[in-house]
Protein: DUF1403 family protein
Amino acid sequence: MRNDVGSEEDLTGTFRFDLPPGWIRAETAQDADQARFLAGAALASLHPVGMGRAAVPMALLCDRMALLAAEASLRLMGRPAGLAALRDAVHLIRPGEHSDPAGGVAQAWRRAARQQLEPGTGETAPLAAAATAYEDSRADHPGDLPGALMAAEAALAGALGWPSLLPVLTLGFSRRDLALCGADLELACARAVVTSAPRAQRLAGDLTRRAAKLRAVAPKLRAKAAPAALDLLLKVDALTPALALSPVVQGSVARMSDRAARRFCDRLAGLGVLREFSGRAAFRIYGL
Structure:
């Protein structure tokens, strides 16, 4: 429910999450100065999230944003792939198997979003740092557009002092922006931030509410591996029960049979706290 101070509350009325100001919109950026002002306002509004100061499941948010950035970068490359196809490419791959090229891009974004960043020196403005990193990466590796976009995102996050990469440029770029340089590229970065940062902030609020609902049902779950499984669900965009939860929950020593893993996710979906993304009867993929 939206209240009059720009925040949202969950069903218990105890959680408050700041929303981006409604006047931060791409269509209001009539000139370069307005675009830079709105970009600064958008980043300032998003900053508590980027710093991990809000009650946001940051690992989950970064993983979800990484998948969205992979989708956007593939579109910019002229090789579009939807989120459903990317989730299949990421989550249905068994150990030792190799993903397709689109899945490889998604995996690369996920790895980048999980890396801890070194804070910037503060000597370069965030948008200028992002533009320079993009240009340098394109010059060194002209055929690697995703790598250049990741470099720009990492430079922006580092200049802002964020501990991890939270993609807010890639989702706002157009294909014609990719050939720009210098001041024109920096302006394109500003416009991209105005488009994407409020979206990231709204997504952070949505995932925070969903995470709160998931934690609230924890006492109803009797499986011994439930705490480890819930912890994993709060860190990843999505998972396949048979591969991520069985025979051992990823990142833990908790054991869960294949059947128990499927029943566990189905129960959470039945309780309305977990979504099934694939729409299939088999090889199902779940996430918040």
